[in-house]
Amino acid sequence: MLLIKQVQIVDGSGAKPFFGDILVNGQKIVAIGKNISKKKASTVIDGLGLVAVPGFIDVNNDSDHHLSLFTNPGQKDFIDQGITSIIGGQCGASLAPLMYGSLASIGHWVNTDKVNVDWMSVRELHQVLARIGLGINFETLVGYSTIRRDLAGAEIRDLTDSEIKVFISILEQALKEGALGLSTGLGFLDSKFVPYSEIKKIVSVVSKMDKVYTTHLRDERDNLLQSIEETLMLSRETGAKIIISHFRPLKGYEKIFSEALSLIEKSLVDSNIYFDINPFTETIFPIHSYLPYWAQSERVEIMLENIRDLEKRRLIVKELQNLNLQELIVADARGQESLIGKSLLELSQNREKDIVSVALEIMESTKMKTMLMSKSLNSDLLLPLLTHPRSLIGSNSASLSSSKQGRELKLERAFSTFTKYLEIVLSRGIPMESAIKKITSLPAQIFGLKSRGIIKEGFIADIVLLKGNEVFSVIINGKNKDLS
Predict the structure, then answer these.
(1) Extents of the domains making up the chain
(2) CATH no. for 56-281+377-439
(3) Average pLDDT in the 437-442 region?
(4) What is the pLDDT of residues 31-76, one digit of tens each?
(5) In Å, how far are 260, 285, 360, 370 from 110, measured between CA atoms?
């Protein structure tokens, strides 16, 4: 047994803090009170000067997309900041369910040859991760593109009625096996033209099973309002709980973003909408997303042909010259690791070439397998959202192994999203109990995570001990994790 003595407890429910002891037996909290005997415990933690809170829940996590659940099962970056549960399967791409064992839907993020797929269903995926010994609780959504690709391939077309029936059957089984809901990545090429009518039929199933639907919007720039209106209509017409993934105020689109936020706030009477954010201004996009839309394709070969064709290249160059590419930094470049961490401006100066030419060279040399990072969010609009009643906190990142560092830019949000969140909101006078509820019991309630998110007798012992705003100790499923 594990005993935490004389600790201040913020239980995650929103109730006022109180002092007491917490007794853990196996995976569960078995007693909360005062003067619990030390004789009952083999391990005793002195809680004097510490605050016990439930483990934090990361509602938008990318460790599955980067396959670091397999290459870095300890997930130390997240545990060190107090995260005990992560939710993957975001933006339309999940590791399961699979019809043919293909991980093509996560090809946006990683080389899928890293692992041998020996699972098909959500249940089998969890069994594989249990054998690996994952250091953190992992839950998943079902990726819309993951199923759709298995039914229609990379072809951009509507699903037939029979294919939709198969889709629904696969989805229902995955939800019964423990998937938390469904996600779409409507901003990606493979999903951008999926019709609303098709999505509505699928999301209606999610709603009936009381699960969650998350969506990467079709457009975060000029057509943001239309994307928000589509999402709100879907909520009204299906009754689904919806989370807008990484809802973010891009620089240059502040007025549209404010109007979009106002639309969400006005809709809360007849829709159940949330959005996830993190406190950092960096964004990452695949390099091909900077091409004119007409030059983009789901097939890399076609995009490469477009930039090699003299007439098309001339048009592409003309459009790229209107973009601000100087501050873009290479976050990942498959096969060209020496580029990582360098800005396009720096590379253009080193190569004595203009920035557009360098960008096109990188597209060709990495076969579009490059991610670019920029500080493209307006912090004046972003930071107040941390305390918005409909915001949730998600790292939108992966925990990478130390051997991977230097081969992929490690963003601050990967290792300090939740500690930074607490630092900011507590400095603004938000009560500790309110700040903790947003990252514990609220997401647990929304996603239906049973026996998590609150420090309560009978609940799973996911507990974080804070010293000030710093994480002092993390207990996951009753086991004390090493933070050294």
Answers:
(1) 2-55+456-481, 56-281+377-439, 285-374
(2) 3.20.20.140
(3) 98
(4) 999 989 888 899 999 999 999 999 999 999 999 999 999 999 999 9
(5) 32, 13, 21, 10
